Protein: Glycosyltransferase
Organism: Chondromyces crocatus
Amino acid sequence: MHVIAPGGSAWTPPERDGPLQIHRAGGGALFTWPGALARTRQAPWRLLDGIPFTAGVLHRLRTIHPVDLAVAHWIIPSAFPLLHAIPRVPLCVHAHGADVRLLRQAPRQLREFILHLLLERGAHFVFAARALRDSLVDALPSPLASALMRAASVEPPSIEIPDVAVRAKALRDSLQLDPHQRLAVTVSRLIPSKRVDLVVEAARVSPPSLRYCIVGDGPEQGALTRTSSPSIRFLGALPRTEALSWIAAADVLLHPSTVEAAPTVIREARALGVPVVACAAGDVAAWAAHDPGIHITAPDHRAIARVLATIARRAFPE
């Protein structure tokens, strides 16, 4: 299996990772964390890095022919225009969120042109969330919308959860919580759409028995830190296993994000048996209808604080 990925140089030999051959295609300045859209907003000149990346992908495609199946992660630019350049090869397109939002914001003619081309060549679309699929379908005229529905399925990305029980206990013990204190953890990029400011504001109106930890970094970190209360601890960006350990150490995961599809962190928390307080976004409300461990709250810091306090009392009655 061959994987073409951003970063490095398109002219270096591929890297071997088990059954995978990783082919670098350049474009690292555009596609690294926290993603192309966020990095372009920070520095629009990074869009220029899309040119060598496109050339790198096309070069790699020429070197690994023949191709039996092409799998594109992101509708734009992976499926169109990059993998659309491979003729007569089955194409599976995974839509994750930002690509759908970009298409919805694009001019109508461009949006319909791209989807018409992909559907005409028989592409199958896999959406990370039902809400994501429906939002794109709603932006299309009836014939094209029907064609997309027939060619689409909904499959949240698979996740694997390592055993973090020992590390989670050590992290919780390190906080030296009193027996009556509860811990809420947020794991998120610190950008406006994640609404971590609601966590900071909720902490201000929470009783001393509620402690907060925030895992992640981003452009909002400075402002959030300056306005935070002593009950909040900012942990910065951590490796995934360490972030999972903090989730497992918590009494509740707090996720107030407004722009989501099928948020992995909520699925990880539930797999670890940790209750979740979240605002309705993507498929989260639909999950909550079938999972009593997911609690939907209004995007208001006082409402969030009330729900957190209620969950803490239920889980640990006084």
